[in-house]
Amino acid sequence: MDDSLPIRYTQAYNLTDLGLSKDLFKPGNLGFESEKYISMKEAGELVIIDIGAGFAVTRKTMKAEHILVHPVNLIIAARAKAASGSNFIQIFDMKNEKKICQCEVKDEIDFWTWINPTTLGVVGTEAVHHLDAKSGTITKIFDRASQLTGSHIMGYAVSKNGTWAILHGIGAAEDKSIIGNMQLYSIEKSQQQILEGFCGAFSEVCVCDNPEFKNSLFSFVEKKKGQPNSTLRIMEIGTPNEGDAKFKQSASFSYPAEVSNDFPVVIHAVEKYGILFIITKFGYLFVYAMASGALLYRQKITATLIFRSVKNTKTDGCICVNRDGQLLAINVDEQNLIAYIMNKCTHLTDNVGIAFKMAQRYALPGAENLFMAQFNKFFGTGDYKSAARVAREAPGDTLRNNDTISKFKSVTAASGPPPILIYFSTLLETTTLNAVESLELVKPVLAQGKKNLVEDWIKKKKLTITDELAEVIKQVDPKLGLSCYLISDNPEQVVQGLVETQQYDKVQTYLAKSGKKVDFLSVIRNTTPRNPEAALGLAKWLYSQGPNMVSTEAVASIFMENNRIQETTAFLLEALKDNRPEEGHLQTKLFEINLRTAPQVAEAIFQMQKFTHYDREKIGKLCEGAGLYGRALEHLNSVDDIKRALLNVHAIPKEQMIAVFKRLEPDDALQSLDDLMRSNRQNVQRVAEVAIANHPRIDSANIIKLFEHYQCWDGLFFYLGHILPETEDEDCYFKYIQAATRLNKIAELEKVIKGTNHYDPVKVRDFLMETPMQDPRPLIYLCDIHGFVPELTRYLYKAKKNRFIEIYVLKFNNAAAPKVLGTLLDMD
Fold first, then answer.
1. How many CB atoms lie within 10 A of CB 293?
2. Buried-most residue among 105, 500, 585, 744 (CB within 10 A)?
């Protein structure tokens, strides 16, 4: 086949290759309702051919006389005549093996077809009916016109909007020539028009100067009685474009001389390109441009009758079947069409103009140079409005690109609005801006604070919504940006938009409705740098929906990659709250990042007492490095590590220090106390508190030696003062008396001397007498209690403390006066 031809027609398949007889390929037996399935009856069996499955054949025994397969699903309509003479139609779901519905048709059935996925068109000898394939309800639409009585029905169709129907058939004239009659019926108005001719087709095609408008058209080939010639008629049956009259077009329809008695059997509207395919009984293909009525191409494509065709939804062409079982695919070659019209259709008086208009209306390649020349002509003369119109009507991005926008930006008008504004306003009149134009217009409009204009354009679908445009809008209005991402159908960005506007509860609803899947980690990763709070909210929400919704470790890593310590902490606190052993490494990470950056937060987490499976040794050392020495002591196990940490007494709470000493062996504990004393004399209070808490685990004698070694009498006094109630050890009492004496704790000395007898009075007497004291009352009490009056008298006399002798005799113990006087006389 010539590579320059505007039409491609090839044999897609031959049904005889399936072992099927040519006798089966005829009207009434072969059903061909869509490009998915072919059905037929063969010797009591239903034969279904699945085209999409490599022409797989399914056979099923069925008594029905006629079968039609649904155009989309594996559902069949079966028709049979009952003994009463009525026709019964049953609808079966073959996949699920169940009957959907059944109805009775009392009219004799001449023809039937699926007019849409839910409705069967049933043509009886008396009337035309529509059968609801779900409920089985059958409705009469109109009575069959008398002109079609006895005609062989060739087809029945309904317009897309369901307001028009066409029934067409053929019959024999008195001279045995073939005549055609058509009944065009307005379902909406219940009115009809009888037409003489062959084959009719409804279509929605632009045939006006507004490429965005679709004209509702009806096309047929007219052949009136007594007239030798046929005429192609195209007429508008809907509301025309604003300001236009109803469209009408006609063109001569002539057959080759050798087949002057030929007639059309198939008419197919290729809406994408504004073209009609008309196929005749003798196998000729006629190709007409609908807007101009121009015959673009004619060629014999088969020697055998084509009796059924369906739309090819992928190409908008058609697939036909002939009596030989050939499936012929007929399609427009988009790359060749315009060039072919301009270069080969020389039989047309305005072939270039026709090609140019078609390229404008249907955005077809091949006329780029014509568009460029016209554009440059208008632009060069300053007619920016006309130049913009040419750009608007040029196919694809021939002129609607950055170069054109730059041209309009680079010039200024002597008067009136700026040329770039003229350009955009002209485009917006009838079309949608492409991605480049949308971005170029929206950016400055938003910069001027005119967001309402952008909202209006979006509402009217005047912008091509891309992710880039949505991002620009999102910077000004996050919710409007989110609506744009919904239009551009970017699930990750939609979810991110919902997150950033804190509509977490709508995420699952959106995904469920749209059937989309989204990489939540990617959303969190993209959101974190710009809106960490929203990213954290999403992460927490995902975790609340189930621990398997997102990897805890991966989320934490994303936050850490962005140095978001606070968000990492907040998320891990939520995700790790169940304290699972397998998440110990994440508990370690939680403590680690805060000990390195925010020790006070780490301390707060410790106080929660939620986590127990982290690496205690590692965290202990980090606590030490962070200055949390008390927490370090709780975690460290090595004695050397503990001893080192203990030296930071000033930063260790008393309770934590006491707790760690209780974990140490007595010898290690004693050594650590010694280290504390040696490192700083001011540690004496804490040493004493620890020693008290560990009594009697750490022997008191060793503690006493420790304090005495460092001459820490205050520490010794404090320590012994707390343990005396728990011991009767005379040495402890004596050491306490010694410490109290050295510290001049007179009241405490008196209390222990008078309140207990767990000491050696002679030893204490001798110590007190050997130790210079300003106030000898403790000694007086001791000597009075234990009968050392003579010794006391001699001591006070020699020490020249006669006043205390008087006090003793007069106030303490009058009965001791004789002994005191006797001792004094002996001394004299």
1. 19
2. 500
Q: Which of 120-129, 177-186, 716-725, 770-779 shows the lowest mean pLDDT across its residues?
A: 770-779
26, 47 contact by CB (below 8 A): no
- Point out the least confidently predicted range of 139-143, 339-343, 633-637: 633-637
Question: For 350-371, what is each residue's pLDDT tens digit?
Answer: 999 999 999 988 989 888 888 8
E strand or H helix that includes residue 748 = helix 746-755
H-helix or E-strand containing 363? none
Exposed (0-12), middle (13-18) or buried (19+): which is 19, by Cβ within 10 Å?
Answer: exposed
Lowest mean pLDDT among 68-72, 115-119, 473-477, 542-546: 542-546
Euclidean distance between the first and the last CA atom of the chain, given in angstroms as a whole number: 157
Torsion (CA) 173, 30, 298, 276 in degrees, nearest 10: 90
In whole angstroms, give the CA distance from residue 408 to residue 678: 88
Give per-residue burial for 248-257: e unless 16+ CB within 10 Å, then b.
ebebebebee
Side chain identity, residue 358? M
Q: What is the DSSP letter of 724?
A: G
* Arithmetic mean of pLDDT, 418-432: 92
In this prediction, residue 179 carries a pLDDT of: 93
Answer for the pair 477, 470: CB distance below 8 angstroms, yes or no: no
HSE at residue 33, side-chain half, CA atoms within 13 A, is 30
CA 580/CA 572 separation, integer angstroms: 12
Structure-block tokens of residue 265: 């059997």
Residues 502 and 481: their CA atoms lie apart, in Å, by 14
Q: What are the contacts of 23-30 at 24+ separation with CB within 8 A?
A: 24/325, 25/321, 25/322, 25/323, 25/324, 25/325, 26/307, 26/323, 27/307, 27/308, 28/66, 29/66, 30/308, 30/321
How many of the other CB atoms lie within 10 Å of CB of 568?
26
Amino acid at the residue 71: P
Interatomic CA distance for residues 151 and 168, integer angstroms:
9
Tell the burial category of 485 from Cβ atoms under 10 Å away from its Cβ (0-12, 13-18, 19+): buried
307-313-315-320 Cα dihedral, nearest 10 degrees: -10
Do the Cβ atoms of 115 and 158 come closer than 8 Å?
Answer: yes
Q: Could you read off the pLDDT of 141-173 as tens digits, one per residue?
A: 999 999 999 999 999 999 999 999 999 999 988
Alpha-carbon gap, residue 324 to 525, rounded angstroms: 62
Quote the tokens at residue 473.
């809008």
- Report CA-CA distances (Å) from 699 to 376, 670, 691, 692: 107, 9, 9, 10
Contact call for residues 432 and 462 (beta carbons, < 8 A): yes
User: DSSP readout, 557-576?
Assistant: HHHHHTT-HHHHHHHHHHHT
Q: Is the peptide bond before 117 cis (omega within 30 degrees of 0)?
A: no
**Which residues, 6 or more positions from 247, have their beta carbon under 8 angstroms from its beta carbon?**
207, 208, 215, 217, 234, 235, 236, 240
Mark 384-393 as b/e (b = at least 16 C-beta within 10 Å).
Answer: bebbbbbbbb
What are the start-end ranges of the H helices in 363-466? Answer: 368-380, 384-393, 402-410, 419-430, 435-447, 451-459
**What's 236-255 look like in SS3?**
ECCCCCCCCCCCEEEEEECC
In 3D space, the residue among 557, 555, 560 whose CA is nearest the CA of residue 539 turns out to be 555
* Nearest C-alpha neighbor of 671 from the set 719, 648, 705: 705
Q: How confident is the model at residue 16 (pLDDT cuts 50, 70, 90)?
A: very high
**Among candidate residues 47, 671, 733, 7, the one with its CA nearest the CA of residue 340:** 7
pLDDT at 828: 67
